[in-house]
Amino acid sequence: xxxxxxxxxxxxxxxxxxxxxxxxxPRITQWYSRLRKxxxxxxxxxxxxxxTSLYTDIAITSATxxxxxxxxxxxxxARRYIVALAANxxxxxxxxxxxxxxxxxxxxxxxxxxxxxxxxxLTRRTAAADPRAGAALLPYPLWCAFATAxxxxxxxxxxx
Length: 160
What we know:
By secondary structure, the chain is an all-alpha fold. It contains six helices and no strands.
């Protein structure tokens, strides 16, 4: 794997994590703790572990896919992959702002649906470039689908 590609995807994913954290950290113990939540929502301590694992996975599998596409002469496909990755990471960080910073439960539920679809598309693109990397990225859309179910359910439970 090209170190520069991995550095670029790691930087992008790290920026996403940082931007999401800025929106959510101070709000978790206040507003979030007062929300009604379904019984299947994991304890707060699960989220940083899950997201750290997923962000690491995204950085590595995306670097692998981009390098594979470039090395096989599919430069246009590599560029489209990078655009899809950037869009996905923007949606990822944006969700935290909509949910935690602005407390927009309905909009965050819609955003979660879009993020889950984007994550599935990114996984599809990754698998097309490198099947093993695509398989390794599969937990990301699965987690996003679970997060979508949580977001929608929290919205339903807390509608006024």
